[in-house]
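Our preliminary data section would be incomplete without showing what the modeling component actually yields. Below, a chain of 318 amino acids is followed by its predicted structure, encoded as tokens that our downstream tools consume directly.
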Amino acid sequence: MADNEILLDAGTNEFEIIEFYINESDCGQHHRDYFGINVAKVLEVVEAPAGLEAAEGAPHPSYLGTMSLRDIILPVIDLSVWLGLERKESEFELIVVTEINNMVTGFLVSGVTQIHRIGWADLKMPNKYIADMDTNCITGTVDLDGRFVLMIDLERILGELDPEMAERNDGTVYSAPESYTAVLVDDSASVRALLNKNFEAANFEVQLYKNGLEAWEALQNINNQAKDDGKSITDHIDVVVSDIEMPQMDGYTLTRNIKEHADLKNLPVILFSSLITKGLFHKGEAVKADDQITKPEFNELTGRAISLIEKYQQKQFS
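Predicted structure:
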């Protein structure tokens, strides 16, 4: 991939989604519901094999057992069941094969439309009706050609099916030698709560933000106040930890903004996301992230943050 293509993806506040649909049958009426996920999580789309059905004793009724895909045996989830929709079955249905947190999973859907490039600023927060749905896995909505596409949080689905996936902990206790301050940015309330808990336990003062734009505006305000006081931003903030997928401004764009800013560029930045894979690592490098850690390694994250701060401090005083 050429450098200009890398920069188009990383730091432009744009991303690509694959749009798919579920044909719903409700009280004799048929209609189509549209959904989307980040295309970076999709390995491929394949035809659904015959014979998939709910498995007895499964952790959730949406679990359809497993299927083989070349040399991989992967679990399959009926997305309509998880979402509480009555899917109208058809002869030709598809499996969207994803890789999230190093786990390959298939999601059964009615069909796929196309891939769209959109801006994170175009992703709107879900309204109260959608946010209050029992499934609670809709992260936002986007208007595509006059139809509303619901963005799905697959990590939440997989985390609820396998609670051990939600937070990995190697048992090591990390504690900073002095009190540090961390800016933590994630659009998921549950992830923010875990980040807050772990960083406070590791002797950090924490500032929490829901998306990159909110964090970027706060950092600029803190920097302006620091300059007025004759100080540096690093006198107030020691590290920034950011998710990648967020409405308004993504983590790549936030990182690029920090690293291109004359006063903020010396802030250490860690990207913490399920999108941190070998195939996508170059995107974080393109925006000059200091470290990249895949979810759900929450415990390792605090240790790496402490090491990164100490590295920056040694550089500053050498």
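Confidence is low (pLDDT under 50) at residues 1-8. The chain has two domains: 3-163, 167-317. Preliminary results of this kind motivate Aim 1 of the renewal.
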